[in-house]
Amino acid sequence: MKLEPTPSIDESLNSNESRASLDPKPIDSSNLHTATDELQHVKLTKTRSLREQIIDDYNQTIQEETDATNTELLSRRDFSPEDALSIHLTQSHIPQDLHDPEDGSALEKDLESQPDDKLQEPEIPDGGYGWVACFSVFLIMFNTWGNNAAFGVYLSYYIANDTFSGATDLQFAYLAGMIVFFSQIFSPLALIVSSLVGLKKTMAVACCTHFIGYLLASFSTKLWQLFVCQGFIVGASYSFIFVPAAALIPSWFLKKRGIASGIVYGGTGLGGLTYSLSINAVIQRTGDQRWSLRMCAIISTVLISLSVILIKFPRPVKREPFTWANFKKSFKVTLLNTKVWLSPQLYSVTTWFVLQLFGYNLVLFSYATAARSLGLSQHEASVLTAIINVGQVIGRPMMGILADKYFGRINYSIFLTAVIFILIFGFWMNATSFASLLVCGLLLGYSLGVANVMNSTFIADAFDKTEFAAAWSILNMAIAPLVLFVEVIALKLKKNDSTGNPFRNTQIFSGCLYVGSVFALLAAREWHIRKTLKARRSKSIFELEKLSTSETPNEEEIEQLRLRIAKYDELLSGNIIDCLKRMLYPLKI
To answer: What's the sign of the alpha-carbon dihedral 456, 459, 465, 466?
Structure first.
């Protein structure tokens, strides 16, 4: 990552940026130069220790959160993909004056440009019919990603039985990746179509194709038919159902958004648990997968249809007509934003997300199959898939709450990632009994969804709201080609001997993916730390400027500010050692 040189003290003192957000009171230039000279002298002779600076930055973080108004804090903290999708879906045009992510938070600038009374009383219901809308999105997640989370039951059944004559394990492995591939690759298109056609219409058509896909899959007699129906049609339908639904939560909630998001995220885990047990029960009772596919078709369609009926925005939405010109304009904004493509932050977050989601699907789809290879029954394997989803029911809602309130999003994501690869290397690789695999699956399930929950917030933290659609689309498209081969790789790494653990190489590979994702996230963390320190340095310089020119200067405060700025100059230098310090700097990020 290219490190920008830290601006000199004179440049910071005279920059318009450092003056814009503070009191523009005229200052005596002679006093200003005196303060600058003294600061340069302090920089050359004395700086505070790193420990003192860490304590000081921690206290500043606490003070910033205390001083912020509730509405402002919630808006900054909880800006999510739903916010940006809502902007994309409800605006008739997208502004072209895009900001530089290095130049501070666009959301902060937007908030600062609003009158105080608008900040204090946003036009957001924070409840009422919003709970019905929240329940609708919960059902969407329950019946799309929750349904997909149970695919491991199908995969272990297809591989263990000669369901389609002549089909190989690798061919079934491609089917596992196809559903996620098409659901990811069509996300940008679903975003564009929703913004032009409308929320309910897009979801209603996708619900119909979703039903057709599952129903035709139950009548499939050849493998290519299963690929088309359960792979392509169902996977593509997921995109056009869940992407439009994602725009609802911020329209209805602000102060209660954490609770609402927890309910929505819990739908994926609860859906995986319910469908895992139900699919296995139907397979055991009927002897094959046909009626389980029909069950998925009927139940998911009924529940999604109920969501389409109930779901709505809290206020009327103005849209552009669906024309070829408007489609091209939306496509350009969504996928051809050169400023987003040239942002280094995009690649660190995208690399992290790709490695995380690759590992997530590898573990989720392989866990039951690996258990079967150790001699466990089909029923026990399906219970293991279900127990992972129990962990997700608990873990996903907690991630956002704990990360925002206590640890910071990136910090908590790094911690959970470390937990995952420790569990893989230290627990899963050595677990052979059903009981030990149950405990391991529960712990893995709690942590595995970190990328699914946090990826959008990382993009939101790094990009302007008008850039989010492009960055989020690129993020989703980047993972699509890789997830197509995720289970193929898992089976290729499988040992063909009957002794020991046949999936050991698969487990090692998935663990290494999570280790690699930590380094990608550390690069993103360094970017955020550098941006935060730059902002605090500019603020400290201006405070020093004001104190130095006041009629009754407080020498103790002036000295503290000088030492703080000198330490920021040291931390913001461009050498490798200070870059590593920023990566590991203990700040809530």
So the answer is: negative
